[in-house]
Design goal:
Elements lengths: L1 H10 L10 H12 L12 H28 L4 H25 L2 H20 L10 H4 L1
Helix pairs in contact: 1-3, 3-4, 4-5
Length: 139
């Protein structure tokens, strides 16, 4: 789910929304053309800042998903995988809370599904080190 959401979110980097009215047109123009002066030669636009945050979220999603797959495929101890899933749940839960208050429906639903999947994984992952964690991928 993390990798799928990361790929879905990455697509938004290549799509430019079109303004629906003159107010939106003015807003988009300011986002792309008004430069902040942050000193030391840094003068990004709000659009630049939003793009960097968007790229960061996509990379966060992809990193977590790939890391989880690699750990499962390399048969790490069940206790280690349990800790990794709990850490994922905490960080993606915090991300979900942020999205609930500052985003729109699509990222909220995607992150809620990720948190739900992580909670289910935490419940269903065998807690016994004698169990092969790569079997978790096959279930």
């Amino acid at each position: 789910m993390q990798i799928l959401t990361g790929c879905l979110h990455s697509v938004t980097l290549f799509v430019s929304p079109k303004p629906a009215n003159t107010t939106e047109k003015q807003l988009f123009d300011l986002m792309d053309n008004y430069h902040f002066d942050f000193g030391s030669g840094f003068t990004p636009t709000m659009g630049d800042l939003m793009t960097s945050f968007s790229i960061s979220l996509s990379l966060f999603l992809l990193f977590a998903g790939v890391m989880n797959l690699v750990l499962l495929q390399n048969r790490v101890a069940a206790e280690t995988m349990d800790h990794v899933i709990r850490i994922n749940t905490i960080f993606f839960g915090l991300c979900l809370l942020t999205m609930i208050f500052m985003a729109f429906l699509v990222p909220i639903v995607c992150l809620a599904l990720i948190v739900l999947a992580l909670m289910i994984a935490n419940i269903t992952l065998p807690k016994n080190d004698n169990v092969n964690t790569s079997d978790f991928l096959n279930n």
